[in-house]
Structure formats: C-alpha cells, structure tokens
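Extended Data, panel c. Modelled sequence:
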Amino acid sequence: MADQLPSLLLLPPPPHPANRAALKAAFEPPLKAAISRLKDEKADQHASILIVGLASPILRGTSLRQKSLSWPEAQSVVAGIYSIVSVICAQLSVPSHMYAGPGSVDVRVLLIDHDPSAPPPKDFKPAIEPNNTVVPDLATFASAYHPWKYIFHTSNEPGYQILSTYLKLAEPVQTLKQDQLIAVQGGLALNVAPTDRSQSSQQTEPHNIMCLGGTFDHLHPGHKLLLTAAVLLLNVPEKGTAGPCRFIIGVTGDELLKRKKYAELVQPWNVRAMSIMDFLSSILRLSKDGWNGAEQPKLDSGSGELVSRFRDDTIEIQCVEIQDAFGPTITAEDMDALVVSGETRSGGNAVNERRRELDWRQLEIFEVDVLDADDVVDGPTKTQDFASKISSTAIRQKKAESRI
C-alpha cells in the first residue's frame, strides 16, 4: 500500500444495541459519502483504498497484556459494516473486491479501541504499544497508520470529538492540509444503556492457533469479514516471550477449481494468497514508518506456501495450498479453533469428525454472521439473492460478460 495512499473514514462508536437497522441508520450516510467521493478518483490505474476506522471502547482490561473483547459483538459489528458497504457499492455500481482497478473502492474495516469519554493525552509523543489482541488503541493507530490521502469524518458532535483527539495524536507523524479533511454526513444513533454491562457482553477466550479455509478468489467483503473475524481471536504474545501466535489459512489449489463456473477467470493461487496477505497487513502491521514500514510476505517458491510475520514476529500468517476440504486441520494436531461461515458450517463439523477419528482434540468452531441485506436495503430484498451478487462467481461472471 506504500505506493498508493489510502484514505481514512473515522467513525464514532456504534449505537447500542448494534443491530443491522441501527448500524445502517448510524453509518450508511458517512460510508456512502466517502465511497461516492473515492469512486470518482480515477487519476491512476489503481483502486481507491478506504480504511474504515471504527473507534469505540471494544477492549476490556487495564493492563496491555490482559485485554479482552467480546468476539460475537465485535464480528457482528464488522459484518454489519461490510453489509452496508456491499449494498452501497452495488447501488453505485462500484466494484468492491480487491484489485478491481480504477473506479473501484477497496474498503477495509479496522477496529480501534478508544473511549470517547476519556480525556485526551497531554504532551503526546508517537508510540506504538501493541497489546495481546490485534486491536490497536487510538494512539497506536495514529502513530502507525499514516500518511493518508483524505481523512473523512462525520459532521456531528461524536465525529468532531474523535477527529480532534485523533489529530492531536497524529500531528507528530503527518502534516495534514485542510483540503485533506472532509466532513461527511453523520447518521442517527440511538443508544439504550444495558441494564447490566457486565452481563451484556461476555468476553471471549483468545487462541494461539487459528485456522480458516476457502477459495478467496477476487477477495470481496465476505472474505474480508472472515479474515478479520479470525484474527480478532488471536492471543498475541509479548515480544520475545514466546513463539508467535499463528493464523493458518488453507487456500484451495488451482487444480481443484477447474470445474468452477468461469474457471478461466479464477485468480492463480499465488495471487489469491497475496491478496489475503495484503488485506491482513492493513489490520496487523504496526510501524512507526507507516505504510513504508509494511512487512513483505515471504513466498516459499514451489511449495504452495506464503508466510508473513507481523508486530515484531509475534504474529505469523501462513497461507497453505490445500487439495481437499480438510487441509492442515487433519494433518496437524496442534490447532485450537476454526472460523466458518453459514456456508461452511458443515465443513467445520466434518473436520471435527475426522479429528475425532484420529483421537485428536476438537477444534472450537466460531461462526461469523452473514452479510445480510434484509435490514440494510430499503424494500424487499432477499439476503440469498444479495449474497449471490457479491460472490466470487458473480464477480467472474461480470468479468466474462464484459469481454463479450
């Protein structure tokens, strides 16, 4: 991303409760404004990249090494935002998958831990202080994510409050011109205080080794949700204290995809694996040099493996080529948990059945929410129809039809 500056959309905390209708009311206006602006940025041959930074008090715990989050709540909010993004892009005829070229907008949602009620720090100096999760606090985000092409913010009180704090934190690392700061319409947010905050969001136990499988062709919002949800479960060790936590991604080999619809347009394995690494780097990389300090993935040539480490080697991402539905889940016993979608739920159950036959411990299964249009689109829209429009198959079909 160093050769092309992304833009940032800073969003205030989501409404409570954060159901799809409430998320739409709060976030559709700013998302639509930012995407509409960027889709017309056709100065070069690249897509516009928009990082959506959702700043909210997502983490609990006072110590850096004892942070925790509620995975069901976190992934649900991410799913809601990607649902809104997908609908907006469909309405505006804007391609939303990665590397889609000029006129497309590659949206990447990033969670930032920030309590708006906390006083801003005084005499701040740039500092990157990672914790035991992949979620940075606002100070670390400001110190590590820069420079930006544009910074979009909502034109309401919560939006200006977060922008003011962010600009104080970002001032030492990027000088921003006034025309880079773009106010966009803020949405409506209604909050109902939970009767018992301690019971409203049970914290999720993190894991040292996560795994996920899929084709990941033309990486789109559904893939981005899966990858984000998986890394939110990682238990990140302190630098120098242990080996890295690991995220193993089984990426279907080219040979298995020859019978797919429009198979000639399926991206090669190495392109799909590099797309995954590119996307994950925008969530995991932390460098005082900003985009210029991004780690380069290491391709193990000829072996169907792509490996990259982030955050001083505390996180290892490994893409491996798989030739069946199970991949490394039944060849490596040392795994903790598996992330699935509604479509791959049966595959997760099959994995555990095979592991049971091997007398191996069962993987904990985490299922992400679906990208749901029912509470996002005005009018009768079937979620199944909506999902089919943003699938890899639909993307290949559109490419095939454009060549006729």
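Residues 41 and 184 are 17 Å apart (CA to CA). This feature is highlighted in the accompanying rendering.
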